[in-house]
Amino acid sequence: MKIIKQKNFDLPKFLEENKLIIKSHLEKYLEIRFPQTIWEAMRYTVLSNGKMIRPVLTLESARVCGGEIENVIPAACAIEMIHSQSLIHDDLPCMDNDDHRRGNPTNHKAFGEATAVLTGDALISLAYQVIIENTPEKIDRNAVLQTLLELSKAAGPSGIVAGQIIDIQSENRDIDFATLDYIHIHKTGTLFKCAMRTGAILSSASAEKLKALTEYGQLIGYAFQIADDILDIKGTKESLGKTPGKDKISGKNTHPLLYGLSGSIEEVERLCSSAQQILIENNLDSPALIGIAGGITLKVTG
User: Fold this and answer.
1) Which pLDDT belongs to residue 95?
2) How many Å apart are CA 231 and CA 47, to the nearest integer?
3) What is the pLDDT of residue 164?
4) Quick count: other Cβ atoms within 10 Å of Cβ 246?
5) Angstrom distance (rounded) from CA 264 to CA 53
6) Which domains, and CATH codes, for the chain?
7) How far apart are CA 51 and CA 227, in angstroms?
8) pTM for this structure?
9) Is the pLDDT of residue 143 over 60?
10) Which residues are bridge partners to 101 per DSSP?
């Protein structure tokens, strides 16, 4: 299968416009109040120069299901909060021990380790509060409950945490391909899947659309992690906004380590092409979702 390349769709413009929508609401949800330090620390990471691809996917999932983005913005912002929390904790000295993220000092370098831990804790709680307090009342409460369940699964011991703990336990050890798959699917892929499902669930998507968008999210989530592994080898501190080569230093098991660099690039192309085909086969007309899958491939081949 070949990657579909968009000719008349401005993906960077689309991503930036939707990022601004998300960011404007995050600014409101993270308005500084007492105690000031914790709100400043949350804003420091959440509002930093991240791509915000996961909440953007939530908005587009809603659009392709005929929903209104206003209905899913709180959930989209909550997903970005959970993602930011995972980065804050991932960067801690007891975890991946990184000093830079998105071109800035990591949260624990800027605010101290204790505050960084509490900042991550605060973001987890605030994420659910934002959904409960701000999702429009016209949205079926069962859909809201399902959204909270989806996010709980993605963030917790059957999602990000599961992938993270196996990742830590696998450092400097030989692992099989199934274990690597488990790490990538849970540590990274689960929140992409959650982003797609959340937009669809809050937009009353049919079972067929929900299934297709779930599969799309799973595929590009895995591709995104492999691309990240590849760029850790090929990228620079300036292009990555974080320290390159950390996977090797930390003894991480990565896709390029097990499959080789060229094999990993081929796998990214295969996954993203499959994701595009799912959209086409299910008549999900979204130049943005097609373009996002293509964009992941371009990151590692361009």
Assistant:
1) 87
2) 23
3) 92
4) 15
5) 22
6) 11-301 (1.10.600.10)
7) 15
8) 0.92
9) yes
10) 104
C-alpha 61/C-alpha 214 separation (Å) is 10
**pLDDT tens digit sequence for 156-212:** 999 999 999 998 898 888 888 899 889 999 999 999 999 999 999 999 999 999 999
Among 148, 145, 142, 154, smallest CA distance to 128 is for 148
pLDDT tens, position by position, 205-232: 999 999 999 999 999 999 999 998 898 8
